[in-house]
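Handout, page 2. Input:
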Amino acid sequence: MRGDALWPRQVSVWPETPGPKERMRGDALCPRPALPGPKERMRGDALCPKQVSVWPETPGPKERMRGDALCPKQVSVWPETPGPKSESCLLAKCMMGRGTLPGTMPCLPRVPLLGSLLSLRSPLPPHLLFTHLTHTYGTLYTLYMGPHPTVVVSDYTHAREVLLTRGREFAGRPRMVTTELLTRGGKDVAFADYSDLWRRHRRLVHSAFNLFGEGSSKLQSIVLDAADSLCSELLSSGRSCVDPAPAVLRAVTNVVCTLVFSSSYLPSDPELLKVMQYNDGIVQTIARGSLVDIYPWLKIFPNKDLKRLNECVAVRDELLTKKLIEHKETFTPDDPRDLLDALLAGQQGSEVTGDITDDHVLMTAAEAFGAGVETTSTTLLWAMAFLLHNPEVQQRVQAELDEWVGRDSAPTLRQRTQLPYLDSVLCEVMRIRPVSPILIPHVAMQDTSIGLHRIPKGTRVLVNMWAIHHDPKHWDQPDCFQPERFLDSAGQKVTPPSFMPFGAGPRVCVGESLARTELFLFLGRLLQRCHLGIPQGTAPPDLQGRLGVVLQPQPYLVTISPRT
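Output:
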């Protein structure tokens, strides 16, 4: 479960290129920069044999003239070069509005009410657009999401300062309409604002994982049972083509259901299908993004997405409330059966009595589904996709499993140190395709700074983990799939400091250890029992990905056969 992972996707919400009046009104707030040359193109333009480009097709002449498409050789967010008043316009831009950032930090053009949204129109997903903009503005720059000043951090040094060195100063969260609805006003861990209550709540959740036995044989047994069911379901298809996504999603959902409220389901169980249906509805609605999170006053108007989100949340809350009532009736404080029991036990503790309500317990359980299912299942699907592209990596993992585990028993957590290559494959998957390429927005809790730049209280900060995980200053050939980068010369696992798929600091994912356990056991058992192949006559999986709530692979087909 990734607590710093999910945030409503910022999508292109603006129409085609504005007319002359719109350009005169605000687009000419900064001098037009020179287009980047060949050496300035986004890192990763040179593709190696193990890499598939993340860029869309280069737009044609008409698209270039229109100016609403970005490609590695083109910057399309700038209008015609402004006149001689550009310097005074730039000064006015930097001084305009409450909360603007003084000093020399580069800033995208902005206009009243809209902020920088006109400059963010692009077919690229936000993480690629923000990375592309570093070639014009550098790795630390400002933009305005409507009226909200927002700093984008795209390098490890400044990200470390935001997340760790000044972690508490940047530990706040913005209040957004959709997340307030999703979490009953911020009663979860991931989206709740930083406070003493939040710290107590987070400690309770962490203790609940420990009470339940995070890393214990009980957890291991739950995950391995689900992994065996997944293998059996995939193998039942024979050697025919199969889309692995539905089976993987069901297996991971079953693990979370067992962890949260001790319910394990068959693939066709109505309650499991209900859980998957409402969770998918929430994910798809949030993924579309909404202007209401930038302009909250828009919620007074009819909104299909908010209506759909309300419906899915109502179904979710009905099911979880039913489970909570059942648990309270059979609850034994000294013998917690699952996460709900562990949370109830912590709720009764003297330190948090009266602070942690049933709403906090329910939203914590809901978050386990919203964050834990989507991120873990997506990471597994990315792992399978990259293994199909790199069959020699699959063979090496299987050879390691054969040597240290054998074929007769499943891999265990105790054998993790003996399986460094399996672990390094998972790390490389999370590096090259982070499911959360942009972390949940942070908010400055006080007047503070990043580097030499003063950051006023209330400023939002976006950490672009995609750019950090693809920075050639820290990663050799960052767009190539190379699990060996996580091994030292002796073949032992190492973790570079710029590898932060779960965030870091006070806002690091509370379920990081749980997620790593699931990924290790799922992939280890799958590769121990099965061979993954590309169906004859089909292309390998598309590695470009599509961004929703998380960065997902495009649907693909695979053949699953038992290892001989």
